[in-house]
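Go through this chain.

——
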Amino acid sequence: MTNEELWESVLAQTQLNISPANFATWFRGTKITSQENNQAIISTPNSFAKEWLEQKYGKLIFKIIHSLDGNLREVKYFIEKQNLKISSLQNPSGFCRTRRGQPSLSEDAQLEFQEFKTDSETNLNPRYTFENFVVGSFNELANAAAQAVVKNPGFVYNPFFIYGVVGLGKTHLLEAIGNEVVKNFSKKTVRYVPSEKFTQGVVTSIRNHEMESFKLKYREIDVLIIDDVQFLAGKEKTQEEFFHTFNALYEKNKQIILSSDRPPKAIPSLTERLRSRFEGGMIADISLPDMETRMAILKTKAREKGTDFSDEVYSFIASVVQRNIRELEGALNRLVVYQKINNRAPDLGVAEVLLRKITVNARKQVAPRKILQVVAEFYDIKERDLIASSRKKEIVKPRQIAMYLLREEFKGSYPFIGRKFGGKDHTTVIYSCEKIGKELELNKGLEEEIELIKQRIYTS
């Protein structure tokens, strides 16, 4: 596999695991320059990209590279000043063939990368609009609130907080708001900023003694859109600066729009004063789309790509990809590639073969270890603390939820679950499961938390 083919395959798989905004921010301008001595050498356009790829996405990148080529046992990064775009953007056709003439992962990447052309002033992707945002019962509240915000920014639903797991369209809706405001209020300054980029800006400004100019830049914005604010958790200096920026904008009736993978009250290590600010406006969730909506999304995406398939093919895709809109589009891209190469639309049989891996994954039963891992990550605690005997309040509740999910999702017996938690008696497990079950009937917030955890279990 050439350097270009390997990296495009890595990118194609990476984009399914992170948000479109973060993907565009940190992977633009990167490439593999060599594969020698069991090492993959990756070039990055600047020191920030190098740092984030190493620290934030290093494990994911290595895992994908090693799965594609088992001989590569190490990944190294270096900074290469360049003005080149991602290689797939340089291919006007957007397609290539493997030696056997079958679509490769790189084709999916090429189809996707053509869509990441952001405006240099606003950092918005013009592709994300209300016109191509499919509305269903799973997101109608968030969409209605967004429509209200764009009519009178700063005075309706401020702040506006959207939450939901990865891949359900939060970024699309955020950027649609920004693009609509730009269109209707040409004099307003709009900025879309992933939370990692805000953090990066704080760190750089402190290092270079430029905090005043940093503050001035953000406090002159009329509509500030911050994506994935859960990543502010634990970053005290960044939270402090964002708190002051939030107050400065809010006092001037400037619109603040935020997104997260969970509601404010469930973000660990978030200062109480920021949490209260986030909860002071409109909070709307985006949940999982139903079957009809998934089919509508597929048809809309297909029209955008200038193609169409049979209803039975759309129905098949929607039946095997149930929890992530981004994965829906990834599956659709594979069929588009096949159609371009073979000059004919794939029928149901071909679709089943092309999407076999997705189908197999969809039928896998969730593993107990996965449940424990996701619960621990969600509540920002160590997995070993979850299964230990600590009676701390911040540990007891997550432990009971983990027991409940092992019972409900894995269908484990009470003695089996007890053994997973250090040999606890089965009566303890029964008590925990019944306690969470009863609380779910009364506590809407707990219901939302567990639903978010379940979505992470099945999509991550």
Summary: DSSP finds 22 helices and eight strands in the chain. Residues 82-115 have pLDDT under 50 and may be disordered. The first strand starts at residue 31 and ends at 36.
